[in-house]
Amino acid sequence: MKAKVYITRRLPDRIIEKLEDQFEIRMWKEENVPVPREVLEREVTEIDGLFCLLTESIDKSLLDKAKNLKIVSNMAVGYNNIDIEAASQRGIMVTNTPGVLTETTADLTFALLLATARRIVESSDYLRGGKWETWSPMQLTGQDINGATLGIIGLGRIGEAVAKRAKGFDMNVLYYNRARKYEAEETLGITYYDFDDLLKESDFICIMTPYSPETKNLIDRDQLSKMKNNAILINTARGGIVNEEALYEALKSGRIWGAGLDVFVEEPVSLEHPLLTLPNVVALPHIGSASIKTRLRMAELAADNLIDALNNEIPKYLVNTGLVVSKEN
Ligand code: DGY
Predict the structure, then answer these.
(1) pLDDT tens, 82-107?
(2) Which residue's alpha carbon is nearest to atom 7 within ligand 1?
(3) CATH fold of 4-100+292-328, please?
(4) Rounded mean pLDDT, 31-45
(5) Per-domain residue ranges for the chain?
(6) What is the best residue among 75, 81, 94, 101 to mutate for testing ligand 1's pocket, by most ligand atoms within 8 Å of CB?
(7) What's the gap in Å between 254 CA and the centre of ligand 1?
(8) 4-100+292-328 and 102-283: identical CATH topology
(9) DSSP assignment of 113-155, as one string?
(10) What is the 8-class DSSP label of residue 58?
(11) Cα torsion 62, 68, 74, 77: sign
């Protein structure tokens, strides 16, 4: 009998076909509407594998309903939407899709940095809104990127890829990471700073760290108060790493200069959100990895993880690796 798999959003045909070859597939067929919780709760009861997105909360109460579930394959590198401990306790593997989205996410991070510093969105709106009546010396002036100091918080794969781009713009690159990375310092020509000093010295601060209880509100009032007046904060990681209320106050009062945000605490962000009222915020709908090539690769990788797990092999990108070790012992 074929193993049963539920897919929580419409996937490209070639990925569905690949999974259909081996499994009995059911899928939430909408593209722009997430699977309702009650549907997911119903579907999860019988399945062996779950292919899900970061929009689904895979928590204890959902996992309790899953009698046969062996794998939760998340089509994202981040997995803060999944209760890893609860999955591990139930012997359920959790996988993610690192690597394939590194360069694409770094591109978007840099695009957001450029757009925020040079007021690209505001300038475009200015033109289209019929406000462009003449050229004038200080009209729509922004911040220079070349020669500025960039502070990267979290030097993982994406952080390193952002550093590489920054070097091409002649930026001075600082980083903070839990563990120092001597080789990256050497190869990329970047400098380790402790957290507070990085906040004080940087013109641009890019948040590139995973979201966890330790990084929740990592950037709060106190941290914002240490930044330069001309500082620009870029967040393409997870919304919860920044206290949005504190960020709003810092931007509104001119404590810092601008912010480029691809992620929010609640997604999709409400159009009533105070941050969206500010002209010095460039806001995007979580599109860090959204290139055609990369999203296809992510889907492919998530499918491969699922296939491996349901064929009793260790998936390449297993998050709860301890599970396999304890199963083998
Ligand atoms: C991820 O993979 O975690 C991104 O946020 C979406 O690509």
Answers:
(1) 999 999 999 999 999 999 999 999 99
(2) 289
(3) Rossmann fold (3.40.50)
(4) 97
(5) 4-100+292-328, 102-283
(6) 101
(7) 30
(8) yes
(9) HHHHHTTHHHHHHHHHTT------TTTT-----TT-EEEEE--
(10) B
(11) positive
Handedness of CA 16, 20, 21, 22 (dihedral sign): positive
CB distance 77 to ligand 1 below 6 Å = yes
- Measured from the Cα of 263, ligand 1's closest atom is 5
Length of the chain: 329
Task: State which fold the 102-283 domain adopts.
Answer: Rossmann fold (3.40.50)
- The pTM (predicted TM-score) of the whole model is 0.96
Alpha helices in the chain (DSSP H): 13-20, 37-43, 60-65, 84-89, 102-117, 120-128, 157-168, 182-188, 195-201, 221-226, 244-252, 292-310, 322-328
Among 41, 78, 39, CA closest to 59: 41
Q: Please provide the average confidence, as pLDDT, over all residues in the chain.
A: 97
